[in-house]
Fold this sequence. Notes:
- The chain is α+β, with helices and mostly antiparallel strands and 143 residues long.
- The chain has four helices and six strands.
- The strands form two sheets. Strands 1-2-3-4 form a four-stranded antiparallel β-sheet.
Amino acid sequence: MNRMKKILRTATCLMATCLMATCLMVTLGFAEVRTWTSATDASKTFEAEFKSSDGKTVTVLRNRRTQKFNLSLLSKEDQAWVKAEMAKGDEVVGTSGLSPSEFAQTDFGKALKKIKKIDGKKYAKAPLEVIPKYFILYFSASW
């Protein structure tokens, strides 16, 4: 009987791990990598994922590194796209148009301050740059 319990426990853990990995892969698929164009030379482009903007600067994720630069360095089309994305950020359910710093002061925002990210082989603080649109909840229990 004990052997059967161990087999069931192992199978349950394996299924939970597979489910979590699938959710993570699906969520990572929502990240939109786009081609950005220079304001001065249309032949200069790069690919990166938009992270945030304060209206004057843009933060992107490029080659797994966060880069921040002036919005004016981008083409007019990219500037318009960023402004449209900023407007979408206000539509996040439950934020009521809060800025990331205001959101950080809410109970949920305070809880998110405790989140860490893996930086190489160690944990590092993960500052709240934008209000998250998606969350993954992983719950584990043992009986």
